[in-house]
Design brief:
Blueprint: E1 36-38, E2 41-43, H1 57-60, E3 65-67, E4 70-72, H2 74-81, E5 100-103, E6 106-109, E7 127-131, E8 134-137, H3 143-147, H4 151-154, E9 162-163, E10 170-171, E11 176-179, H5 183-186, E12 190-193, E13 201-204
Antiparallel strand pairs: 1-2, 3-4, 5-6, 7-8, 7-11, 9-10, 11-12, 12-13
């Protein structure tokens, strides 16, 4: 198992030394015939899993991706951090070691994740609205949201409906109140919704 972008190579392992190798995942001794090496540690093949989808990485490829302490399969790395490595706001590259913010599949530098109106930075825990590709803080959200005139937003193809996790209802995007989260800490962006017929629940934003 190889970490792309990492120059570290596993130390040589002899048959006699396997008995004292400890798995970084479970902490148990590795007595298996095969073991994996990632993030400068040894792993049971069953213990090296994607932090997001829990896939056993030894079964799906010969490489894994690491960022901010997470171990990821290729698909989840691209989903969380983008495949271009570029910030959706400024277009500049995002170093592999840098934390990012996410909204609707777009990735941003922390400093670029700002309200489109007041330019104040949105930080983890802040509520925001994502409309037509733009970010708005709670204070500067469009008047249409505040006054309840939602016709123009309901037909917006860029904002697909979400399903509530507590009931089978479709929740239109204008009802979703997003909460900013650092992808490296939470893996998935979380949103909360309040809609007629539903008591409100956690929504997972793709």
């Amino acid at each position: 198992m190889v970490n792309p972008g990492s120059s570290s190579q596993p130390p040589p392992v002899t048959a006699g030394s396997l008995s004292w190798k400890r798995c970084a995942g479970c902490g148990g001794k590795i007595a298996d015939r095969f073991l994996l090496y990632a993030m400068d540690s040894y792993w049971h093949s069953r213990c090296l899993k994607c932090s997001c989808c829990q896939a056993q990485l030894g079964d799906i490829g010969t490489s894994c991706y690491t960022k901010s302490g997470m171990i990821l399969c290729r698909n989840d790395y691209i989903r969380l951090f983008g495949n271009s490595g570029a910030c959706s706001a400024c277009g500049q590259s995002i170093p592999a070691s840098e934390l990012v913010m996410r909204a609707q599949g777009n990735v941003y530098h922390l400093k670029c994740f700002t309200c489109s109106t007041c330019r104040n930075r949105l930080v983890p825990g802040d509520r925001f609205h994502y409309i037509n590709g733009s970010l708005f803080c709670e204070h500067d959200r469009p008047t249409a949201l505040i006054n309840g005139h939602l016709n123009s937003l309901q037909s917006n193809p860029l904002l697909p409906d979400q399903k509530c996790l507590q009931c089978p209802q479709e929740v239109p995007p204008e009802a979703v109140e997003y909460h900013a989260s650092v992808a490296a800490l939470f893996l998935l962006d979380l949103a909360k919704a309040k809609w007629p017929g539903c008591q409100g629940g956690t929504m997972i934003v793709p």
